[in-house]
Amino acid sequence: MSPNAHITSHRKPRRPATQSWVVRTGVAGGVLSTLAVAGTASATTAEKPTEATMEMPAFNAALSTSIAQSAVATQQTAVDYQVRAQVEEAVDQAKADAKKAKEEAERKAEAERKAQEKREADEARASRTSERGSLGTKATSASGSSSSSSSAATGSSSALVSFLRAQLGKAYVMGATGSSSYDCSGLVMAAYSQIGIDLPRVSQDQSTAGTQVSTSNLQVGDILYWGAAGSAYHVAVYVGGGKFIGAQNPSTGIVERDMSYSPPTGAVRVM
Q1: Tens of pLDDT, residues 8-54
Q2: 161: closest CA among 243, 88, 99, 102?
Q3: How far is Cα 256 from Cα 37, in angstroms, rounded to an integer?
Q4: Across the strands, what pairs with 213?
Q5: Cα–Cα distance between 90 and 202 in angstroms, integer?
Q6: Comparing C-alpha atoms, which of 204, 170, 169, 166 is closest to residue 185?
Q7: Where do the structural domains in the chain lie, given as residue ranges?
Q8: Any residues with CB less than 8 A from the CB of 215 and at least 6 apart, and which?
Q9: Which of 121, 259, 257, 263 shows the shortest CA–CA distance to 201?
Q10: Is pTM, for the whole model, over 0.90?
Q11: What is the SS3 assignment for 182?
Q12: Are 268 and 225 in contact (CB under 8 A)?
């Protein structure tokens, strides 16, 4: 065989360039189609959250309404609490004002009472001073009297006892000086005024109005007293025969009693 003889080639025949371009174009188109489909799917998937987002305004409106209602309720509660607090504060203030007014009224009443007591004490002190001066003058005159004066004294004692017995059974009233009721010193003062002798008003002063005498050596008309001289709490008049007449208490009134009924502490003689 000739070296130049034609040997059949085993290579595949070349495709035309046009065919290759078509193939490549088809492949590219397929890829693009696939991407387009995938993009469409992705777009569809991406749109779903948008649909969910469209429901949010309705949820937010309901929540806003609930929050608003809660805020109103809270505000109303706060107002109610404030009103209640104001009412309680007003009540407490009213109680405090009433207590203060009561204390002030009590303070004024106490001050007035003390002032009244002081006025009465001053008046009583002035009255006792005047009565003591008068009694001292009468006692001085009596001490210089003669035997005729003794006879007059006897007559005075009789008048004194007669007046006292005329008062038996009348009422005992604290502070009274006659004529329907007496207290103890009021009766003694009234009895002595019948014979022209002025005595102090109260028992304490009457117990030191004259000369102190022993209760074992009494004369008709002597003033008996119970308690210490100068601070006696009760007085009566000795009427003889071991008896005295006095305004005892609200239960018994003016009575005549034996000395043994209630022995006196002491006695004074003023006539």
Answers
A1: 555 555 555 545 544 454 544 554 455 444 555 544 444 454 444 45
A2: 243
A3: 145
A4: 267
A5: 55
A6: 204
A7: 52-144, 147-269
A8: 224, 259, 263, 264, 266, 267
A9: 121
A10: no
A11: strand
A12: yes
